[in-house]
Design goal:
Length: 328
């Protein structure tokens, strides 16, 4: 988090405390990741109760600004804010003044006039969250910028893996598919490096970008060796028109699709969603008990609660804080 970078910055001149943001996994330390996963765990246990709302962020305003299609990410940020009793305002570009050509800067400044505590932003342009952080006084959380970063996805995936295996260090994850256009893959690689997860990228040569610091192969056979097979969507909306990354989707499915016969019995499979069944993932795999896709969605809620809490309060939520919240 810029947060953390700022916390580490002892030479900062005196003045009001810096705003904490979550813009990129590269701003996080291993300790930050551990603290956020721990906070999410505490929130998860609170959600087991009949009344699921905590008063923790009562009176705060969380604005969700989504310039790209989203189901899981936007709904979980909204629910996360509501579970913590914050007010929420969700703006989707379709139907807003963005449709009338308003610039991101103008939209951000307009919403900034409501004094939001947090702005969660998803945008097709790389760096859009940084711009919002510059032109408003809100804490900013990146919910996906182009093919660059999607830090809360990486955190919820680590949370899911930790829940499943009881550890992260030493796990081996095969990330399969359209790595080239994937902000999820870029964020995951950085997160894996922080916690000691080994990663192998697998896919067609044209969809494996050069310059990433990771093992790469075009051989789908290697996925059997991994603890987790992490499947990426073929992101056609991000592909350049006319470029031939794969001969056809059918060919892609035949050579790199994750099918039952390519997996070990019991091998765990993850996918950030939305899934293209029959393309990157066989429906039998998507529906099997070893697919952790629904767990990922549940993890998304508690991780986003933890992130909102963390940027606003700057510390781990303790049992005492929750106990106080319960009586409030
Ligand atoms: C991902 C995204 O938007 O980057 N989805 C998500 O957040 N659940 C992955 C994708 O779109 O394929």
């Amino acid at each position: 988090m810029t947060s953390i970078r700022l916390v580490r910055d002892d030479l900062r001149p005196p003045g009001p405390p810096p705003r904490r943001h979550l813009l990129s996994v590269s701003d996080l330390t291993r300790d930050d990741v551990q603290r956020l996963l721990g906070t999410a765990r505490t929130f998860e246990s609170a959600l087991d109760r009949e009344v699921k709302k905590l008063p923790t962020l009562k009176g705060r305003l969380v604005v969700n600004l989504f310039y790209e299609a989203s189901t899981r990410t936007s709904s979980s940020f909204e629910l996360a804010a509501k579970r913590l009793s914050a007010d929420t305002l969700t703006i989707k570009s379709a139907g807003s003044s963005v449709d009338k050509g308003e610039s991101l800067k103008d939209t951000a400044q307009t919403l900034g006039a409501y004094d939001p505590d947090v702005i969660v932003i998803r945008h097709p342009q790389i760096g859009a969250p940084q711009l919002v952080a510059r032109v408003t006084d809100a804490h900013v959380v990146n919910a996906g910028d182009g093919k660059h970063q999607h830090p809360t996805q990486a955190l919820l995936d680590l949370y899911t893996m930790h829940q499943e295996f009881g550890r992260l260090e030493g796990l081996h994850v095969a990330v399969v598919g359209d790595v080239l256009h994937s902000r999820v893959a870029r964020s995951l690689l950085q997160a894996f490096a922080l916690v000691g997860i080994r990663c192998t990228l697998v896919g067609p040569p044209a969809l494996l970008p050069r310059g990433l610091d990771a093992e790469m192969t075009t051989d789908i056979g290697v996925i059997r060796d991994a603890d987790v097979v992490y499947v990426l969507r073929m992101q056609q909306e991000r592909m350049e028109a006319g470029a031939n990354y794969v001969p056809s989707l059918r060919e892609y499915a035949a050579r790199w699709g994750v099918t039952p016969d390519r997996l070990r019995p019991g091998q765990k499979v993850m996918h950030p969603g939305p899934m293209n069944r029959g393309v990157e993932i066989d429906p039998r795999v998507a529906d099997s008990v070893d697919a952790l896709v629904e767990t990922q969605v549940r993890s998304g809620l508690v991780i986003r609660m933890a992130v909102l809490y963390d940027v606003l309060t700057g510390g781990p939520v303790g049992v005492r804080a929750l106990a106080a919240a319960e009586v409030a």
